[in-house]
Specification:
With 288 residues, the chain is α/β, with parallel strands linked by helices. It has a domain of 112 residues: Nucleotidyltransferase, domain 5 (2-Layer Sandwich). It is built from 14 helices and ten strands. The strands form two sheets. The chain has a five-stranded mixed sheet with strand order 3-2-1-4-5, sandwiched between helices. It has a five-stranded mixed sheet with strand order 8-7-6-9-10, with helices on both faces. Helix 1 runs parallel beside helix 3, helix 4 crosses helix 14 and helix 11 packs across helix 13. The N and C termini lie close together (10 Å). 43% of the residues are buried. The mean pLDDT is 90.
């Protein structure tokens, strides 16, 4: 049996092909697929353009895809339809990225699992099922503590002339003429595809200046906002480990841990990408 496992955020997807014994047959990356922004046609065309996928597509027996935005049957079906056009011989399961995150961090103890990447979200996992206490409101209304949230703070700070001079000047040096024009920014955010990914693309620059007092305060404010809404909504949040997955959690772990410590939250696993843990979980619990 050949199994394909995918973990997809809004920015990129990690793909892992294994056999029933866990031997890795292939691994590769593609763009992220989010059904709120991408159609079945987009999923199909991008995967068919990926050589690593097409070399093994006809050999796949089972596919487990977990992705951002796959939060309802309707949204899951968009991704599933695109996958089915490429993986013609495979049984396909599409689930929410929260399920994938929970499976990948499972260590035998009921827990809260959080995603802090391009977007943000959380769930409670008891070993059998996940549930959300509050929904994710995505990058316009929510995504507290995410890459898109911090990207918005940086752009606001720049255009409102609130940045320290050295960060302001470095922003101009780093991004050039385009990103310093409000008309370009407005078009990129409100008219183009993947505005959440675009906003999150400024996270690397924020990381460059994370020790500046203003930027550190942004980070703490964002994480406190996230914890207040998406962790403290669970009545036993101080009694179970809280796991974190995603590039923002991984690269700003010191500030995240500081925010957690101040609120009495016990930090569990903290990993950048869940694909390996996801494969281990499926081999142990899901694949028969």
């Amino acid at each position: 049996m050949v199994i394909l496992i995918a973990d997809s955020g809004s920015t990129k997807s990690d793909w892992l092909v294994i056999d029933e014994n866990g031997k890795v047959l292939s691994e590769f990356n593609t763009m992220g697929f989010n059904p709120y922004f991408h159609s079945s046609d987009k999923v199909e065309s991008e995967l068919k353009a990926k050589q690593e996928m097409m070399e093994i597509a006809q050999k796949i027996d089972k596919t487990y895809f977990y992705g951002a935005g796959a939060s309802s049957v309707e949204m899951c079906d968009i991704i599933k339809e695109g996958l089915s056009r490429v993986l013609e011989n495979s049984i396909i399961h599409v689930g929410h990225d929260l399920d994938g995150a929970a499976y990948s961090t499972w260590s035998g103890e009921s827990c809260i699992t959080c995603i802090l990447g391009t977007g943000s979200n959380s769930c409670y996992f008891d070993g059998e099922r996940t549930h959300e206490e509050v929904p994710s409101l995505a990058y316009i209304l929510g995504d507290e503590g995410s890459g898109s949230w911090f990207g918005k703070r940086l752009l606001q700070g720049f255009f409102y002339k609130q940045l320290p001079k050295h960060i302001h000047d470095d922003f101009i040096s780093e991004f050039g003429e385009d990103e310093t024009r409000i008309n370009y920014i407005n078009k990129r955010v409100y008219k183009n595809d993947d505005p959440n990914v675009y906003l999150a693309s400024f996270t690397k620059f924020i990381g460059k200046h994370k020790h500046d007092p203003l930027v550190k305060q942004w980070l703490l404010d964002g994480f406190h906002a996230f914890l207040s809404v998406h962790v403290e909504c669970y009545c036993n949040f101080k009694e179970v480990p809280v796991h974190f997955i995603g590039s923002v959690a991984f690269h700003f772990k010191d500030e995240l841990i500081e925010a957690c410590d101040s609120r009495g939250i016990r930090v569990g696993n903290m990993i950048k990408a869940p694909i390996d843990g996801l494969a281990d979980y499926h081999l142990k619990y899901k694949i028969s």
